[in-house]
Amino acid sequence: MKRVITYGTFDLLHYGHINLLKRAKALGDYLIVALSTDEFNWNEKHKKCYFSYEIRKQLLEAIRYVDLVIPEQSWEQKSEDVREYHIDTFVIGDDWTGKFDFLKPQCEVVYLPRTPEVSTTQIKDDLHSLNG
Ligand code: C2G
Fold first, then answer.
1. How far is Cα 88 from Cα 90, in angstroms, rounded to an integer?
2. What's the pLDDT tens digit per position in 83-121?
3. Which of 14, 29, 30, 91 has a CA that sits 20 to 30 A from residue 3's CA?
4. Residue nearest to atom 28 of ligand 1 (CA)
5. Closest ligand 1 atom, CA of 9?
6. Cβ distance 54 to 36 under 8 Å?
7. Which alpha helices (DSSP H) does 3-108 contain, by range?
8. Strand partners for 110
9. Is 124 noted as a catalytic residue in this protein?
10. Of 24, 105, 93, 18, which Cα lies nearest the Cα of 62?
């Protein structure tokens, strides 16, 4: 069984996220999503999530491509995750190209093209301008 892992915030879930998860699952048989906790988002990514970790986790668990959701609590946990979950392939959007090549000795590293024209930031901005 080929095991795939990906990482992200997945706030205000949209079709760009779904496209990523669908392609990630197609690379193997079992997909783990390491979901950024609220603390990690705030302290490390300076992102304030609209939905809490628990809600974002529930949403991801409802997606047919996702087999397991675990917390992402630090930038440094990836190597240990790959070991602990016997990961064959690490995958993430190409906005991160090169950033996780250090995992190559442990597993395949795949950067997938992002889905254009959609992002959580854009959704927030559009809603803000809609409501004035
Ligand atoms: N994504 C995409 N297309 C978009 C938007 C996002 O393919 N239009 C992908 C991103 O490239 C990422 C995943 O969807 O692979 C989740 O995106 P974010 O929630 O923005 O995750 P990010 O903040 O990039 O966190 O340790 C890695 C980080 O946790 C990644």
1. 7
2. 999 999 999 999 999 999 999 999 999 999 999 999 999
3. 14
4. 8
5. 19
6. no
7. 15-25, 38-44, 53-61, 78-84
8. 91
9. no
10. 18
